[in-house]
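Practice problem: predict the structure.
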Amino acid sequence: MTVAAPDAGPATVLVLDDNDTTRYIVGSWLRRSGHTVVEAVDGTQALALLDRTPAAELPELAVVDISLPDMTGFEVCERIKGRPRTAALPVVHISATAIEASDRTQGLHRGADAYLTEPIDAAELQATVTAVLRYTRARRRAERLAARVAALHRATLALYGADDADALVTAAALGAVRLGAARATAIALGPDRDTLYLAQHDPGRPSDPPVRLLQAPPVLLDVLAHHTLGDATGTDSTLLDADAWRDVLADHGLGAADLPTGPTALVVARTKPGRPLLALAVDPDAAADADGRSLLSQLTQAAALALEAQRSQAEEHALALTLQRSFLPDRLPAVPGVELAVRYEPASARSEIGGDFYEAIDTPDGLLLAIGDVAGHSLTAAMAMGELRHALRAYAIEGHDPQTLLHRLDTLLTRLRPGLTATVCLVLISPDRRRLLVANAGHLPPLLRLPDGSTRYLTEHGILLGLNVPQPPAVAFDAPPGSDLLLVTDGLVEVPGEHLETGLSALRDAFAAAPPDPDGAGDRLLAAFTGRQADDVALLVARLH
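Answer:
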């Protein structure tokens, strides 16, 4: 038995002919083949019919006679092809008079897809209509597929550009909609493995934003895995009826108020063994054909890979941060007459580590405070920071003064890490806690708050380390009991595109108004300044009694 190709199925056909008999005969032949026929007697009527017909209900083919009372069939064809909404409508010319080769050539040149001359055989007409429909439908399907592949490409770019799990599930849901889903929900476990993120797009909620963000228990993914991949990797899809999908939602605190509860096509992906699924829940029509299922599977796979990249980045960042913190002091010395507090804040969730550091060393000559920043964000910068900090402790224990300490650190850096630079500020607090000796190698100046609440920057400084340039002598400053000292790295106050003096002025005002206890002051300053910065932040607060 011969099975008709899907592209050759019945269609709505416009028959345009001013001859009632011919129009009736042609229409009868087409109806016998299962087609729906609409008729027109002249070009004006036919064009008007096409204009008022909704785009989704337009005929799929027009059979147009050449000899018409108001215009030629050639002109009708040109007008059909010249209008954007009907440009793709195929036209078959028929004629009993324009039967020469030149007539057929003219018809085809002016836009016709086929040309028949009378007397027309019924089988020939039906075969021509079938061939034109088959070609036209295949071309339209290819164009739709190309558009959907382009949409998949754009959605994939959005997935890999997502900064966090919320942005990723949002991009996945919108990507499914662009691939043809009427509604879509993306479900993924975030990089922290604790929070299940859902992004739901439903045009049935016009008052809501295009995508709503929800949360659910992570165990929901285990239930979805039971319906699909189980423990396997790769992609899979299944259709859940309304009752099954409603049960899945109800068992995990979700329902009609949160997600659509009708029949649902579920498309899932897992990239590595032991990883949780990433799932897309869409309306069944979106996955009704092979192309739709394939594109949704590719989208889900891309989303799972993008999420895997986020997970890897989060793990790398956690390791990098642990490494960087291992280079910093694990405790501060407890010395009479000085309260200390430190804060360290990485710039972002990036995996790069920087060279910001702080130190506090109790020496026979007093309490030495240090803060510094090795240029760059890399493992090299972090390693150089660790070397400088440990060298500083060794040199300080030997009893060197601040100027000599900077000189030795500069020598160490130029010999061991040529080409690398660093800024370091040293403050030696005298044993009686009333004098400060400051040696600053290119770092932000220390900020001193006096007991009366007034503040001043201790601005005397030399050149940064790593250039083999001599450092000036340390400068002494009075610090009455009750004074507070603040040392920071530039990440706290430096904002891209903004003058550094603006940040320093704001820091001075904020420190003047900060609480007297060092911990409270550190928290207040971090809260006031972090968020806009693009660099790591280290700060040290000392209160002198």
